[in-house]
Amino acid sequence: MKILEDRIRQDGTILPGNVLKVDNFLNHQVDPQLMDQLGAEFARQFADAGITKVLTVESSGIAPAVMAALHLGVPMIFARKHKSLTLTDHLYTAKVYSYTKQVNNDISIDRRFLDPDDKVLIIDDFLANGQAVQGLLDIAESANIKVAGVGVVIEKRFQKGHQLVTDAGIPLVALASIAAFENGTVTFAQD
Ligand code: G4P
Ligand code: NA
Ligand code: NA
């Protein structure tokens, strides 16, 4: 998506460890007009997928997810993060390891927000190693619901997450796909 690639070129900075800092429009300050355009594009690409709910993980997935849900006309649910969980009877839970932060989190969604006939779209801000998406796939499996697709604002194609999703046979839409960081500039994947 050209408008997003332009914004990344303009406002993104590359930090050590192949981390793209985009905290002036996505990860701290949020540009609602851009989020609206991203949400519309996710909705356009998944318009015929029969989606009943959008799932994400707090916190940075919420802005794009709620806009996708708005344009699809369905609710958005964000999984909550916990250091560790007790009393989980009323929850679907999964473990998520963050390579970037080197911490383990449990994520959870209350059982009453997922129904067996749901078909969900998973949305996140970044697809890097794919652990957050894997956690939501684990929850979807526990809840016995269908996953229509995964939509991410920015994927780092050279990390494991892209392969993880496509190997699972799940349609993946990345609105910006980064092939590499070279000499302090972002190279986008061509297809
Ligand atoms: P994953 O999200 O694909 O599992 O990747 P990973 O474990 O590597 O990432 C851990 C956290 O770091 C995630 O945020 C992820 O969105 C974020 N992240 C990964 N790569 C980048 C990057 O290049 N730039 C930025 N800005 N973030 C990146 P999180 O822990 O879920 O936190 P939150 O921001 O959603 O609260
Ligand atoms: Na995230
Ligand atoms: Na993040």
Automatic annotation (TrEMBL):
SUPFAM superfamilies in UniProt: PRTase-like
Biological or metabolic pathway of the protein: Purine metabolism; XMP biosynthesis via salvage pathway; XMP from xanthine: step 1/1
The Phosphoribosyltransferase domain, residue ranges: 37-160
Binding site residues for 5-phospho-alpha-D-ribose 1-diphosphate: A128, N129, G130, Q131, A132
Keyword terms of this UniProt record: Cytoplasm, Glycosyltransferase, Purine salvage, Transferase
Residues that hold xanthine according to the record: L20, N27, K156
Compartment annotation: Cytoplasm
GO cellular component term of the entry, any: cytoplasm
Keyword field contains Glycosyltransferase: yes
Catalytic activity: XMP + diphosphate = xanthine + 5-phospho-alpha-D-ribose 1-diphosphate
Top-rank lineage group of the source organism: Bacteria
Biological processes per GO annotation: purine ribonucleoside salvage; xanthine metabolic process; XMP salvage
Similarity comment text for this entry: Belongs to the purine/pyrimidine phosphoribosyltransferase family. Xpt subfamily.
Entry function: Converts the preformed base xanthine, a product of nucleic acid breakdown, to xanthosine 5'-monophosphate (XMP), so it can be reused for RNA or DNA synthesis.
Alphabetized HAMAP family for the sequence: XPRTase
Quaternary structure note: Homodimer.
Family matches, as PANTHER family: HYPOXANTHINE/GUANINE PHOSPHORIBOSYLTRANSFERASE (PTHR43864), XANTHINE PHOSPHORIBOSYLTRANSFERASE (PTHR43864:SF1)
Name of the protein this chain belongs to: Xanthine phosphoribosyltransferase
Organism of origin: Levilactobacillus namurensis DSM 19117
